[in-house]
TrEMBL record:
It comes from Candidatus Terasakiella magnetica. This is Spore coat polysaccharide biosynthesis protein F. Coiled coil: none annotated. PANTHER family: 3-DEOXY-MANNO-OCTULOSONATE CYTIDYLYLTRANSFERASE, SPORE COAT POLYSACCHARIDE BIOSYNTHESIS PROTEIN SPSF. One of its GO terms (cellular component) is cytosol. Pfam families: CTP_transf_3 (PF02348).
């Protein structure tokens, strides 16, 4: 029997209204994108990490950085991110897809691994760790099957569903969804890269934790407990989307 391939697909693009080129910005010695990729590469039980990047010239630098970090790169339409995911899943022969976004440089490989395990053991169609949110903003992990991704791509017509990839599946009446909650409520933490203040927050962290790419969530939480002023840098942005 052929091995069922599990692939992390990271969406990344240069265009961002609030902070263009944000994923190429340096956090310590490496880019925000490199942080996200390196952490995704440590998720247990995966076969590949793929970056799904728009096929525009302005995104060529993102594609080069993703290749340099050792990922497969698939290019597709800028605004139809769902189509881009389908293309990436086809190119990597993925049977299970883990969706992570490139603006999550502190995504926790252990929590993403647990979310994948929950998907596999529960027999659900969809597993995530944000329904409802309880982890830091920036840990979002969504897992589904190729069958459901293909169905979404074939059937979803609303622009919102095309742009945000998973809502068509998450809200479908046929879906069995499981969620991985945090043992303690951590959703007050904003660890996502969307605004200049977020970048400032990550850079302040990197100064205190030079090996930030390998820092655990526990390491980061302990530091922030001792130095709450770091969290204050971007706390006022919390949170427009949750």
């Amino acid at each position: 029997m052929a091995h069922m391939r599990t692939v992390v697909i990271i969406q990344a693009r240069f265009g961002s209204t609030r902070l263009p080129g944000k994923t190429l910005e340096k956090i310590g010695p490496i880019s925000a994108l490199h942080h996200a990729i390196a952490r995704c590469q440590r998720i247990k039980g995966i076969d590949d990490v793929c970056c799904a990047i728009p096929d525009l010239a302005q995104d060529d630098a993102i594609a080069r950085e993703a290749e340099k970090c050792g990922t497969t790169v698939v290019r597709g339409p800028q605004d139809d991110v769902l189509k881009r995911y389908r293309m990436a899943a086809d190119a990597t022969q993925a049977k299970t897809i883990i969706r992570i976004t490139s603006d999550c440089p502190l995504v926790d490989p252990d929590i993403s691994s647990q979310t994948l395990k929950l998907f596999e053991q529960s027999g659900a169609d969809f597993a995530c760790n944000n329904a409802p949110p309880s982890w830091p903003h920036g840990f979002d992990t969504e897992v589904t099957s190729y069958e459901w991704l293909r169905r979404a791509d074939d059937e979803a017509t609303e622009p919102f569903h095309r742009e945000h990839v998973m809502p068509f599946i998450r809200t479908h009446s046929d879906i069995k969804l499981v969620n991985l909650p945090s043992p303690t409520d951590l959703r007050q933490h904003r660890w996502t890269l969307d605004y200049p203040e977020d970048l400032e927050f990550f850079r302040a962290l990197a100064q205190k934790l030079p090996d930030l790419v390998n820092a655990t969530t526990d390491d980061i939480l302990k530091l922030l407990e001792k130095q709450p002023e770091i969290s204050e840098i971007n706390h006022h942005l919390h949170d427009k989307s949750r």
